[in-house]
Amino acid sequence: MNYLQYYPVDIVNGEGTRCTLFVSGCEHKCKGCYNQKSWSFCSGILFDKAMEDQIIKDLKDTRIRRQGLTLSGGDPLHPKNLNTILSLVKRVKFECPDKDIWVWTGYKLSELSEQQKQILPYIDVIIDGKFIQEQADPSLIWRGSANQVIYRLKDLK
Ligand code: SF4
């Protein structure tokens, strides 16, 4: 898996102060996509063990307390990204159990494959669905268009 950007301190992509990773690769091709550069799986740089270690280190950093980790893209739940993301969220929940994990995906929660659903026990919030330009609304928080839904998975479990 490649990633486009990593922000060790981020206050706009989810609740509280967070670490945020934007992965490369997305096949949803939404009209009006905010970042078409993210569509290519070859964009950005390789997500390696050193980057994973850095995220864990940042989440454990007590000087700036992070509420959790945000995974966005691109699409973290694209089948090509899934194994790496699954391994990352498992490690975060094991080593940083007090941190929450938010995931943005273009897939609908109700339409996730069995393989994609494997991530659900390890994450706290999922914002689902493609960006639909006709339903775009800048007043929405954490969503670009009104069709997208914020699911707090603990409430559903
Ligand atoms: S799901 Fe997100 S990254 Fe993918 S095309 Fe749609 S807006 Fe762009």
TrEMBL record:
InterPro entries associated with the record: Aldolase_TIM, NrdG, Organic_radical-activating, Radical_activat_CS, rSAM, rSAM_sf
Keywords assigned by UniProt, alphabetized: 4Fe-4S, Iron, Iron-sulfur, Metal-binding, Oxidoreductase, S-adenosyl-L-methionine
One function term, GO molecular function aspect: oxidoreductase activity
Catalytic activity: glycyl-[protein] + reduced [flavodoxin] + S-adenosyl-L-methionine = glycin-2-yl radical-[protein] + semiquinone [flavodoxin] + 5'-deoxyadenosine + L-methionine + H(+)
Highest taxon, organism lineage: Bacteria
Pfam families: Fer4_12 (PF13353)
SUPFAM superfamilies: Radical SAM enzymes
Cofactor(s) for this UniProt protein: [4Fe-4S] cluster
Entry-linked PROSITE patterns: RADICAL_ACTIVATING
Protein's UniProt keywords contain Oxidoreductase: yes
EC number: 1.97.1.-
Family of the protein in this entry: Belongs to the organic radical-activating enzymes family.
Function text: Activation of anaerobic ribonucleoside-triphosphate reductase under anaerobic conditions by generation of an organic free radical, using S-adenosylmethionine and reduced flavodoxin as cosubstrates to produce 5'-deoxy-adenosine.
Identification of the protein by name: Anaerobic ribonucleoside-triphosphate reductase-activating protein
